[in-house]
Recover the amino acids of this structure.
């Protein structure tokens, strides 16, 4: 089992920045990819960014490329999402995901609201 706990959400003005963190615990050795997904009201959950636990290969949604950066600490049990130049359309609940290739684990989510 893997537990994921997000932090760092909040209210920010357009053009501002936020940094989300996801702390993983439990059988973290089994995780191959960690990532962030988001779900806005009335919309489906969508991929934001992912990073492999080995090699640190990253992947981004087109809508956030160049504005968001995903990273992980050296111990590999915390993943961050640095979000810059935030737009109102980035408003959503952001969920951390840990994928073993067989099982996907999810955090409870953290609200990000971009509004003036």
């Amino acid at each position: 089992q893997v537990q994921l706990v997000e932090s760092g959400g909040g209210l920010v003005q357009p053009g501002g920045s936020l940094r989300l963190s996801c702390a993983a615990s439990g059988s973290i050795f089994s995780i191959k990819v960690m990532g962030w997904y988001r779900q806005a009201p009335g919309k489906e959950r969508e991929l934001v960014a992912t990073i492999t636990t080995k090699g640190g290969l990253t992947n981004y949604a087109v809508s956030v490329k160049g504005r968001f950066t995903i990273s992980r600490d050296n111990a590999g049990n915390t993943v961050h999402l640095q979000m810059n130049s935030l737009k109102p359309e980035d408003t959503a609940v952001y969920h951390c995901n840990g994928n073993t290739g067989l099982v996907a684990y999810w955090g409870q989510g953290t609200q990000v609201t971009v509004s003036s």
